[in-house]
Amino acid sequence: MPTTVQPFHAKNRHQGQYDFARLTQASPALQGFITSNQHGGTSIDFSDPLAVKTLNAAILKSDYSIIGWDIPEGQLCPPIPGRADYIHYLADLLSHSNNGKYPKKKRLDVLDVGTGASGIYPLLGVAEYAWHFVAADINQDSLNNVRQILSTNQALSERITLRLQSDPNAIFKHIVSKDDWFDLTMCNPPFHISLAEAQAGTQRKWRNLGKVSTSDEAAPLLNFGGQGAELWCPGGELAFIERMIKESADIQGQCFWFTCLVSKSANLAPLKTALKRAQVYELREVNMAQGNKQSRFLAWTFLNPVQQAGWKKMRW
Q: What domains are defined for the chain?
């Protein structure tokens, strides 16, 4: 049985199985990580961070013509199929807001909050839809790594602007200037409330992968990596997104749709209460079913119908 990937958005390129023959042809380095699985097919050891990173680099080169992708050891290594889903559902959100038609204007602007060292959302968003991105992060080293990736992909670099968030307690403040207009914002927030909780999550995933470790130090921090603010913040994702909602009200006229992934379904009710308190005009919960895994994001706008019509006439 081949290595399978759970069903994704219909436009997602990563349906069915990984074609390792094609991927290794594009990126020979992947060959060293391919093994036979118990079903007689081929796979990689998804508990090996280097194997996952090499697979990502092969996918980006083969499927998106993105070369030279790399991240420092220990940084969050995103599973590309799931990340691509968020991009495609955001494109659907734009179409649904425009009478079922994708905006005709060539330039659409997106803000990625917490882009990380991988820069994965801007890279995929440009490759799939030619969006223009502001990629923001509190970590200068992460932005430097994205800059290095862009240096080998000139077409992408022309559509991605990097901005350092100087205040670790701020989200939109200091990043969004008075001259900015964003059709979308997006974010994959830190979801743990502490390092201890992140490590406990690591151990659970490690056991689910059939690996055994006797201590936190014996296992890497998730097979997909991640450090510090990538994985946890005081109050976890609930506090982070509540702060995002509060700050979004301060720039409500400068963005059509604010969006954010919500990993814990228990946080949906308090977040919807916070959005109601912020007096958003419209709220949507967008579910992204990926086989047995349930993922979703919240989207909200402060624009009323008259303001939405004006925005669409001006920008779409």
A: 73-315 (3.40.50.150)
